[in-house]
């Protein structure tokens, strides 16, 4: 199974009341979101070989513009940052930027709002995909395989980053954020979750450094915090979100004490006043309450990998004020008109895991809206 990725999602049909909290608008930093059901970042492996987004991506995202906020698929901040999956996009060349500008325009034309998720895959990268040897906090391989162009292969032992190389990683995030907003994105989400580079630094299991980036929670938080600070400096706090998955690691990317670990990070970045914190966590865990209590700003919840989305539960959380908004992945993947369906209480299309990462339009831009289904039935 791919990290951070569920294989199937039960879709729970649910009807929002007219006054549902999740249907109410929300100011998210500089961005006005028309509702609080955001589209979670979803890698779709349909980008061109050079990391330029697919020709179909503008249509795909525009179809989903009724989401309060679209968070794009994870997008590499540099060539070296790539390589966890084939055909994933980047935002480090003019050509990438130009295509992302077309996508942002298409979403804005439909009234949508969009943040780009920025990632560095760290030790999850495979040289057969990226063409470079992966880097990580420490030279510890993930006990996992990658889907390379020539089949499944084990991940390799990464090279531990030298301390002197770390400012270059921070600079790559900064430059990518600049390109993203220059392309017309409303903001960026820094990917600090799911076992990729920033999460690897947070983990006391796979980060065994002895410099200022390893050891104490404050040290392990340093790289993520420096990235957030640099990106805030570049594009403004109101256009920056951060995704984390505390206590919800992938493989050995875990924290023995997630609350202490993330307290160090959140204490440091909370005063910056970023647009939102996006947390991938099972909300029935006590860690959820502890992390929630640490964040004074907009708090976006994604309920995790295999449980599917329980909209009734999420609406209750929003009504209680436990969450400001929710991020939903597979239900948006399969239902471009998810909001309409939730308003009507209509049945949801089932996501087809077989086409999550398959090339081409099938399972990408061909999930029908309710209106299309009705037109088919009456034809
Ligand atoms: C096909 C697929 C691709 C994903 N790609 C990303 C990604 O690029 N970045 C990320 O942070 N999470 C990614 N995830 C995780 C989702 O954002 C989300 O956390 C997960 O699907 C659980 O939410 P859901 O039950 O609403 O689908 C992906 C999940 C799936 C199913």
From TrEMBL:
GO terms for cellular component: cytosol. Keywords: Oxidoreductase. InterPro entries: Aldolase_TIM, OxRdtase_FMN_N, Oye-like. The keyword Oxidoreductase applies. Pfam families: Oxidored_FMN (PF00724). It comes from the Bacteria. This is NADH-dependent flavin oxidoreductase.
């Amino acid at each position: 199974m791919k990290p951070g990725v569920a294989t199937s999602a039960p879709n729970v049909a649910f009807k929002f009341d007219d006054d549902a909290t999740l249907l109410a608008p929300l100011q998210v930093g500089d961005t006005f979101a028309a509702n609080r059901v955001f589209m979670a970042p979803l890698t779709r492996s349909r980008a061109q070989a050079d990391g330029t987004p697919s020709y179909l991506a503008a249509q795909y995202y525009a179809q989903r513009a009724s989401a309060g906020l679209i968070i794009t698929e994870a997008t590499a901040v540099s060539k070296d940052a790539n390589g966890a999956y084939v055909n994933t996009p980047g935002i480090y060349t003019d050509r990438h930027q130009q295509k992302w500008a077309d996508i942002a325009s298409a979403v804005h034309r439909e009234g949508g709002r969009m943040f780009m998720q920025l990632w560095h895959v760290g030790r999850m990268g495979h040289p057969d995909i990226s063409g470079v040897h992966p880097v990580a906090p420490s030279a510890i391989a993930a006990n996992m395989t990658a889907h390379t162009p020539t089949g499944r292969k084990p991940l390799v032992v990464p090279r531990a980053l030298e301390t002197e190389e770390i400012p270059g990683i921070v600079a790559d995030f900064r430059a990518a954020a600049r390109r993203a907003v220059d392309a017309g994105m409303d903001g960026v989400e820094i990917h600090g979750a799911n076992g990729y580079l920033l999460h690897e630094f947070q983990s006391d299991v796979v980060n065994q450094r002895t410099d200022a980036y390893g050891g104490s929670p404050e040290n392990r938080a340093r790289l993520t915090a420096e990235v957030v600070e640099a990106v805030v400096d570049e594009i403004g706090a109101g256009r920056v979100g951060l995704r984390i998955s505390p206590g919800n690691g992938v493989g050995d990317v875990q924290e023995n004490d997630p609350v202490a670990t993330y307290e160090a990070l959140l204490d440091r970045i909370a005063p910056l006043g970023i647009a939102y914190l996006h947390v991938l966590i099972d909300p029935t865990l006590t860690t959820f309450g502890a992390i929630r209590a640490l964040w004074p700003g907009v708090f976006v919840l994604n309920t995790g990998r295999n449980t599917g989305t329980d909209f009734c539960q999420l609406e209750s959380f929003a009504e209680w004020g436990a969450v400001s908004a929710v991020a939903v992945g597979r239900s948006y993947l399969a239902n471009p008109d998810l909001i309409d369906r939730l308003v009507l209480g209509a049945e949801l299309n089932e996501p087809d895991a077989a086409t999550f990462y398959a090339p081409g339009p099938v399972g990408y831009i061909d999930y029908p809206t309710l209106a299309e289904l009705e037109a088919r039935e009456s034809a």
